[in-house]
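Quick start: what a row looks like.
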Amino acid sequence: MVGMTKKASAFPLRLRSSQLRELARVVAAHDHISQNELIEQALANEVLVRGATIVADLELAAQYLVELTDAQYQQVVAKSLQEFAQGESLPEPLQAYALDPEDVRSYRKRTARTKTADSLGVMAAFNAAS
């Protein structure tokens, strides 16, 4: 809506305090402006000050959250590195070892004579699914 012209709307304002009404009248008369102009200026100033205060409060809260998040992230990374290091010091669950190529050929020859190509039924399971 920025840049759109609007009709001036009425904003009736009742001041509950008679002293405040009198102060507004005196100050407006001193500045040679209407009481409405004085109240508009005061409201504009108050809104700007409160808006700036809200912005400052939000910036402080955001900075605090950044600091908390950074601290938590550092703790997570440190714990992860520690757990990784502890895991690296453990023995491997499956120990690798070298195979003798002759043993592999011998094993393949023995199993080729005694088993079919699909002894576990893997191909049959795939064929049944299609």
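That is the whole record. The longest helix spans residues 35-88. DSSP finds four helices and no strands in the chain.
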